User: Fold these one by one.
Assistant:
Number 1:
Amino acid sequence: MGDKVKKLIDKLNKNKHLDREEWLTVLGEWDESDREYAADIARAVSEGVFGKKIYIRGIVEFSNVCKNDCLYCGIRRSNKNAQRYRLTDDEILMCCDEGYEYGFRTFVLQSGEDLSYSAKRIADIVSRIKKAHPDCAVTLSLGEKEYDELKLMRQAGADRYLLRHETANEEHYKKLHPSDMSFSHRMKCLEDLKSLGYQTGAGIMVGSPYQTIDCLADDMAFFESFRPEMIGIGPFLPHKDTPFCDEPKGSYELTLFLLSLCRILLPRVLLPATTALGTIRPNGREQGVLSGANVIMPNLSPTAVRKKYMLYDGKICTEDSSDECRSCIQARMKRIGYEVEISRGDFK
Ligand code: SAM
Ligand code: FES
């Protein structure tokens, strides 16, 4: 039956739920016409909620020092070729000030798991940003933290936190991470974030090594039950200095399809068209938006350090200034009939 997958996509749109067998069918049997069908529905759902507006978040990658050794990641601690850097508190503030001038009203502070930035230090940075720009939202993406640390940063004014779960399948998680990292701790962090009132982001890499249709069905069931306010999905891209250097890239089309399925499942979710999607295809972010994404996160890091935050080979936007990225995104969105929105863009 040619339209089995389309019928299930309709069912997902109507009931906001599929059971496991149905997910396995959708994820295992889709073809290009199903992907386009899902994209059309997802785009309509997204426009129903957000109109033709795209939210922008300025991302400040403030340190590439990391105590972890995730097998996929270019800034893992074992990568001796990575040139490490850390921005000072003042430099981080300056990036946000500059971003504010360009119209950003959300700042995302992202780093490796770098212990030299204690929760107290991050809380101070967050307070300073909030004091300088009370109309802005601050998003953190610092990896796993303990409850009290998350609480301190939340009390200092942090609004949102991005922590991709990476995979909802524990066996798969073990194949992507060394044994000193645990699936249960990552999941506990996500629960802690929600209970502390953060707008919480989860997410995955599409096509990470050992990922199966079963893993993706687990991810979709996790999104349905956890109901994250944000979902970060991008293709896995290999980095030459990691154990996964020879693994194939994730599928561009499957990434777009999953974006559409997430939009249909959770109509109000904040869904970025990621930098990895723009790296795998020159117009990947535009296609992400046309598949249901409604957020883009241009880089606000100083140009001097951008090349050092190399999570995967070929990462785009490492030569450009913050201003160039901002205008580039605006022009790209305009070309496909969308408009960049200057507001915090909260989950409602
Ligand atoms: N340390 C924080 C954390 O663990 O959440 C934030 C930084 S971490 C580098 C941000 C995300 O980059 C990860 O959650 C992962 O999904 C993504 N990432 C890392 N290596 C990647 C790769 N080779 N290809 C695509 N995405 C990658
Ligand atoms: Fe950075 Fe286009 S977003 S150059």
Number 2:
Amino acid sequence: MESFKVRDLSLAGEGKKNLEWAEMHMPVVMLLRRRYADQKPLKGYRLGLVLHVTKETGVLVRTLRAWGAEVYLAPSNPLSTQDDIAAALATEGVHVYAWRGMTEEEYFWAIGRVVEAEPHLVVDDGGDLHAYLHDKAVDIAKKIIGGTEETTTGVIRLRALEREGRLLYPVIAVNDAYTKYLFDNRYGTGQSTVDGILRATNILLAGKRVVVAGYGWVGRGIALRMRGMGARVIVTEVDPIRALEAVMDGFEVMSMDEAAKIGDVFITATGNRDVIRAEHMEKMKDGAILANSGHFNVEISVADLERIAVRKRQIRRYVTEYTLKDGKRLYLLAEGRLVNLVAAEGHPSEVMDMSFANQALSLLYLKDNAGKLQPKVYRVPREQDEEVARAKLEAMGINIDTLTPEQKKYLGSWKL
Ligand code: NAD
Ligand code: ADE
């Protein structure tokens, strides 16, 4: 098997500097790297990773290798790879199969290379690796000690496998750790989505009507940060409780049908398909911008856009102009794929620090509990979540209080 495949090895020097930059902003992962570097707890283990190949993923990979693991890495989106990072990792001995702009076929070929390595432990972002293992490589999947899942969409897919009684190994839903979704999904995506839209378009956000579809953790973060930029934010939802929460958080809430007529920028963050369809596109204003921050490129129906458009051209990097029959122009960013990872660099390192500290600790937990766990979707242990939060606070130089013995007693008793 080829030991790696990347775009251009001459980018390795640039990649190494970017990795150094990320390491400086990921103190929790670096602390964990140092803590177990002598013990090498993953020596003799092959790890299969399908993650966005970014500088932050590079820091995680270097950490797992410092713990003795052999790492096989493929990207979790065909357009999110940072080629300099892929090159740097390849020169360091990582089996990386990733380049920006892969076709769908090449994307699944890369996942296939990771599977062929017969990993002991697997890490996925979005569920394509887990799905491949359960669909096309059952014999390999049966031997896997355990896996982790980074994002909401992947966890949803794994729970469906579990419900059908088909899950073949234990999985830790890293996404569902408090120190993951409260920060990564909310503040990470909030900031990096604004970053992606600005890098792609350089439009002024102040005064624009920005429509956010979905008021989950990602949608909340985007709505909050867009408001911070002076945008007039509209939220669309299907869940009445979340819709009500958005109203009381001070956002306008309405159906997509109504929002379509007045929005300047549309951002999907639902994990669902066909949230923006032809019927909405036909109502939009000339010049409306469409972007997606959900995991898959199914939230904005690109097929509908292609069908109703009479002309298509690339007007800027990551901006495709579609002209409809009536002459109206709609602008799709990043081909409807995760705008924050395609047009920008994904979440800032400081946020990925917590997500990837959880990934690293979850892998150790799976390895230490090999054979003791059921093929189920598990939550991150509470102690791990607290350990990550404490380490992050310490790295930020923030002290918190501790309960006095009297306070502990008071909180634990019914008799006041
Ligand atoms: P979530 O479950 O917390 O929120 C999704 C929300 O969308 C829910 O409130 C749901 O009611 C709503 N929704 C579903 N269908 C809808 C529809 N048709 N119209 C309007 N609202 C609808 O999930 P989340 O953690 O916010 O994640 C959302 C997506 O973002 C997932 O695909 C996740 O994997 C992805 N994600 C992306 C990044 C990134 O870097 N871009 C980071 C984290 C998560
Ligand atoms: N998902 C979102 N941002 C990311 C990043 N910077 N690295 C890896 N995965 C990500």
